Amino acid sequence: MAARPRVVVIGAGLVGCALADELTERGWTDVTVLEQGSLFTGDGPGLVRQTDADRTMTEFAKYTVAKYGSLTLEGRWCFQPVGGLDLATTPPQLAELRRRHGWATSWGVRAYLRSPRECAELHPLLDPAQVLGGLHTPGDGVAKPLRAAEAQARRAIDRGARFLAGQRVMAIERSGGRVTDVRTETDRFRADVVVSCAGVGAPAIGRLVDLVVPLVPLAQHYVRTITLPSLAGHNDDFTEAGKPVLRHGRLSVREHVDRLGLGSAAPRTAGPFAPADFEQPWAEAVRLLPALADAKVEDGVTSLVAATADGKPLLGEHPDLDGFWVAEAVAFPHAAGVAREVARWLVDGQPRLDLHASDLARFERVQLAPGQVRERAIRTFAGTRHDEPRPPLRTSPFYERHVALGARFAETGGWERPVWFSANETLPELARVPASAEGRTAGAEAIVARERVAVFDLTPATRLEVTGPGALPFLRTMTTNELGHAPGAVTYTLLLGEDGGVRSDLTVARLGTDRFQVGANSALDVDWLRRHLPGDGTVQIHEITAGTCCLGVWGPLAARVLAPLSTTDLPADGAVTAFIGAVPVLVLRRCGDPGWELHTSADLGRLLWDTLWEAGQPHGIVAAGHEAFSSLRREDGRRTWGVDFTAEHDPYEAGLGSAVREDKGYFLGRDALLGRSAATVGRRLTSLVTDDLVQGKEPVYFEGCPAGYVTSAARGHTVGKNLAYAWLPVECAKPGTPVEIEYFGRRVPAVVEPEGPDGTRRTA
């Protein structure tokens, strides 16, 4: 690729314009933006809320606010920081606002909890008798989408970019696994990089390159009222608004000079605006704003927004076609932030923010079925819980046995995974779990796993087989630890980006000279490894998850269950092949594990379960779910990638330096780690013991000031403690340091807990 590649952006909406601006600012000036219609048409309410449960989404919005606040178009503003005011009318809603306030504090957004009287002072049209409180975010506000788009486009044009209207894309041509041209109805454009920013039209663009773009167009209603006497003289045509944007549930309200604009999302896929669409939102608005009682809707519009199954954007490069990128399903408040990260990704080779939750490659293949995408997108858009009854999508060979034991399931990667089992509600260990504790049955399961023996279904965990004469050099290059051990070794190691950030953690079992089994985290790891395969065919990667299954047999009596069944001595550390009864299995154990993993083919899974279950009865074996699994992991001090640490953190910050062997030779990210160590870090993933159990994402205070945030938390049922991880500056991370956690508006005392040199709390 040329030093300054030819870039074609499909779509001159807000994301396309922002991307052209960000790319040209970084020196990629050969940028052509194609729009099938007219440039800079259509508009929206322009509501910007920064705070989200997801830190990355909040960072997107923070940058959008900062950028649009600095833009003008012919002397007119692009963003007005009038503020936002989220309202609560019920106690659960008020509790949720307190939680949102914690998110804002964690992610560095200025926000304040307000009383009903203070809410009415901020927005005098509001009836304080109808609300219990509010969350005021002064930096939120309203934007002019068309102005922001055109202002960014003009800056890009000044640097050399072209914007062309009336260019409907008909084909994207390719050669040798790369894009080469974009062909429209009238022209052909040479391209080294193509970026789809087509919005609801993205699936059609994806089909041109055999790519499923899993989004669904869903309706969003917006109406404007007639002139309101109560707003007369409050605003002028230049400023348009002065009061904060109101939000309650799915209703939003903003000023348009002397009228109000009201928005509401609707989980349907098509149809023009009809007055009946807005009857319920209008009734809710009248209840909150009595000034609307004598008003009416003057005009309304239904627009379509691109929705995904999890509510996150779709960002990244086509898995099988170099140079074809997508930046889709991007909500208005995130447009500039997304554009900046995609530009960094293209120009610098990787983004700076953690984008794993937005990565195009995050979905399993089965999750891309149109019906699945539509159902999940509607559920997420409407705020419907995903744990409501639904047909199972993927099940392990043990599913029927789980159902018979009363499993309560949650979905992960499309798999039905047991959370806990109602069959365990009569366990005697339940008496040792405090009556006030959440998840008491899971607590009893965890105690059994520590004191007797429990079996866990680990089938949903991603498993790969890496083979070929180049397998060892490839894995050594891709990961941080030394893998050149004799067959039978099991090694914990990390995947890094070029900047040294941790992209994932893996468990690698060497099964032969040229054969490895890799325990990974998700489809993202598969995509990352495949992108780096050597072109000489010496390495093959096969995902074996669907065709295999895995049980974890853990606890001090696990050996008594397994040893009589096994034809081979159970390994203290490493991997061996054996028969467990009549079932051929791969037995894995990593040093410090509380037992053994048993891997076999899916067709033999039920026989393996039944063999273990029968043999385990004299020893009090139980089936245990993921909630107990998470509790035990936390007690053992094991971090979870994507939750406790991400690509924004290096191994030493995350307490994983023992998995890095800088002296083994080159590996991806090694150069960025040179000079770094546990002694040089400025922040640290820190273990906390808390007075009360928290949930994660709460702000942590040191000496009264926000200092960091919680990543995850769990009850340590067998140690009798509430445990959490948090990112804190090193000066706050010393064992014994007292801190506080803001949890739903109150301060929970906590203390920094010592950990071993490898980051562990305890050994099973």
TrEMBL record:
<feature type="domain" description="Aminomethyltransferase C-terminal">
    <location>
        <begin position="683"/>
        <end position="752"/>
    </location>
</feature>
<feature type="domain" description="FAD dependent oxidoreductase">
    <location>
        <begin position="6"/>
        <end position="345"/>
    </location>
</feature>
<dbReference type="InterPro" id="IPR013977">
    <property type="entry name" value="GcvT_C"/>
</dbReference>
<dbReference type="InterPro" id="IPR006076">
    <property type="entry name" value="FAD-dep_OxRdtase"/>
</dbReference>
<dbReference type="InterPro" id="IPR027266">
    <property type="entry name" value="TrmE/GcvT-like"/>
</dbReference>
<dbReference type="Pfam" id="PF01571">
    <property type="entry name" value="GCV_T"/>
</dbReference>
<dbReference type="InterPro" id="IPR028896">
    <property type="entry name" value="GcvT/YgfZ/DmdA"/>
</dbReference>
<dbReference type="InterPro" id="IPR036188">
    <property type="entry name" value="FAD/NAD-bd_sf"/>
</dbReference>
<dbReference type="InterPro" id="IPR029043">
    <property type="entry name" value="GcvT/YgfZ_C"/>
</dbReference>
<protein>
    <submittedName>
        <fullName>FAD-dependent oxidoreductase</fullName>
    </submittedName>
</protein>
<dbReference type="InterPro" id="IPR006222">
    <property type="entry name" value="GCVT_N"/>
</dbReference>
<dbReference type="Pfam" id="PF08669">
    <property type="entry name" value="GCV_T_C"/>
</dbReference>
<comment type="similarity">
    <text>Belongs to the GcvT family.</text>
</comment>
<dbReference type="Pfam" id="PF01266">
    <property type="entry name" value="DAO"/>
</dbReference>
<feature type="domain" description="GCVT N-terminal">
    <location>
        <begin position="398"/>
        <end position="664"/>
    </location>
</feature>
